[in-house]
Write a structure and sequence with these properties.
single chain, alpha/beta, Protein-Tyrosine Phosphatase, Chain A, 5 strands, globular, disordered N terminus
Length: 153
């Protein structure tokens, strides 16, 4: 076969939300699933939940053998986060869709694509409810380009 690995040989794209979890639970899921890169796609990588702010999460992930990468440009803009908190999923998706055509988001998506092709990645955001998490949109865009499976952890 010429041209490199087929889509069947490519690792899955995992997604996870940490709402309702403690850090060890999240990292256990990622390691058990075979993720190698924790791809934090929060616009603001800070959290009131202990263990989920960028520096501590990165250090803890790396201690477990996971590479940590934050791509701020793939986070939901503030109006989209406000819509999600207010329970307006369609509005959040529309705002995020408009954001994803910006040059910064396209650069972030290209970086995520290169990472996803190289190793099993897990896209991380806060939300547990699929109606409100933007990681499924990002994962869908990546999978549309690569043919990779998407698995929510």
């Amino acid at each position: 076969m010429e041209g490199g690995p087929s889509t069947h040989d490519r690792p899955a794209i995992f997604t996870a939300g940490y709402e309702g979890l403690v850090q060890d639970q999240l990292l256990d899921r990622l390691v058990s699933a075979g993720a190698r890169v924790l791809l934090d796609i929060r616009a603001i990588p800070q959290s009131r939940k202990p263990g989920f702010s960028k520096r501590l999460l990165a250090a803890s992930a790396e201690a477990r053998g996971l590479r940590y990468v934050h791509i701020q440009a793939l986070g939901t803009p503030k109006p989209g986060r406000e819509a999600a908190r207010a329970g307006r999923a369609a509005e959040m998706e529309a705002i995020f869709g408009q954001h994803m055509v910006t040059p910064a988001a396209q650069v972030g998506l290209a970086l995520a694509l290169s990472l996803a092709l190289g190793a099993p990645v897990c896209l991380l955001c806060f939300e547990h409810d699929p109606a409100f998490y933007h990681r499924r949109i990002v994962a869908g865009l990546l999978a549309a380009d690569t043919g990779q499976a998407v698995i929510d952890l």
